[in-house]
Every structure is written in C-alpha cells, then in structure tokens.
Amino acid sequence: MIRRHPKGSRRRRWHELRERRSQGIFLLPSLLTTGNLFCGFFALLLAMHGRYTEAGLAIYVAMIMDLLDGRVARLMKAQSQFGVEFDSLADVVSFCVAPAFLVYAFALSQLGRPAWFGAFLFVICGALRLARFNVQTGTTDKRFFVGLSTPAAAGVVTSTVVLLARVELERWLLVTIAVGTYIVALLMVSTFRYWSFKEVDFARRHPAQTLLIVVLGVMIIATNYEWFTFLIFAGYAIHGPVRRLIVGRTPQPAPELAAKEP
Description:
Elements: H1 7-48, H2 52-75, H3 81-106, H4 113-136, E1 144-146, H5 150-164, H6 171-188, E2 193-195, H7 202-205, H8 207-223, H9 225-247
Antiparallel strand pairs: 1-2
C-alpha cells in the first residue's frame, strides 16, 4: 500500500529547506567578515611580539577577506543590514586599530607623545571615515570614494612598516613615518575624491587579457613585494589630492548615481 504525504506537509518541508539554504547563504559573507576580523586581531598579537612583517601580511589577508565578503554577498543576494554593520566593526579593528598599533610598536613609540597621538588620530579618523560612509551611502557618486578608504589607508601604513622592517630606523626616518601617519589619517576624513574602479568592467569584456595582466602583476609583485605594495598604496593615496589640483572640485551628483563601497 502506497502512503501519500499531504500537500501541506510537502510545502512545509520545502519552506524549511529554503530557509536552511538562505541561512547558509547569509552565513558565508559573515564567515568572510569574521576572517577579516580574525586577521586584524592576529596582526595585533604579532605586532605585540615584534613580528612586524607577519603582522603586515595578516592585514593584507584581511584586505582580501574584506574585498570578498561584499562581492559574495552581492553575488548571492545575501546583503543585510547586519552584514553592513558587522563589516564596519571588523574594518575598525583590521584597518584602523591594527595598522595604528603596528606603526606605533614599530616606530612611533620611540618619539614620545606627539608621535603616538598620530596613531590614535589614525584610529579616530578611520572610524569617522567608516561612519561617514555608512551615513552617506546612497548619496554619493559610485565612481568615487569621498576620502581615502580605510583599507587603502591601512595599506599605506602597513606597506611602509613591511618595507622598513629590516632597516635601522634613524630619527629623521622616524619623524617621516610620524608625519606620514598624520597625513594618511587626515586623508581619510578629507573631501578628496578617489576612483573606486566600480565602473571599470575590463574583466568581463576582456577576460583573457585580464587574466594575463593579473598573472604578470602577481609575478612582478612577488619579485619585490615590499616596494611594489608600498608604491601601489602610496600612489593611490596621492592621486586624490593630485586629481583635485588637476580637475578641481566636482559638484555633488544626484542621489540615484550613488552606490555602496565594497
């Protein structure tokens, strides 16, 4: 005798399966954000024990995690307000506190109070930058970031430490690092506009060329990653003020042109 399940029972099972699948999709971006947060915390531990290069690499991995979590959430249509807030909190640790503590332990601790205040300024400016972005989401041109993004600012500070990790730091070099920390911190809360590269769809239009460029880029960076990462991040940080000098101040766009930062 064949036993048939009522339609209501099958519908309940179907809804349960969909809910489980939805929970799994929302879990993946959150796991990537958690990995970002872990890398930032791990960088703090490494810096505390004087392992500055390894701490810098941990922050680099956090950047990759931060890049992936937003992409994965959009591809899987698993975006949520919880994910946005969780991502911002993780970024405060990985791209504000961790780089500031790294540069303080590496160099600024040798210069006294004015220098370590620069490390705190980096943290507070990074937090303000993230808060300002969350408030302005949907009202800014998606082609640009207003102010240097926190991952890029963390990249400038981190790549500087990685570059100079094996160099004997003289006083003039320590002062230069301190001044640079102040400048990068203020760039985060500035109104300089930085290209977001969201409108660039080169990978989809030219996949073979994109793959070749990526492979060549990885090979070039691998030969001397200390210098290349520093030049990439420093060049990106400088291009905002340079663009302002060349183009001038751009008027605010209409709200419909806005989009979320990755």
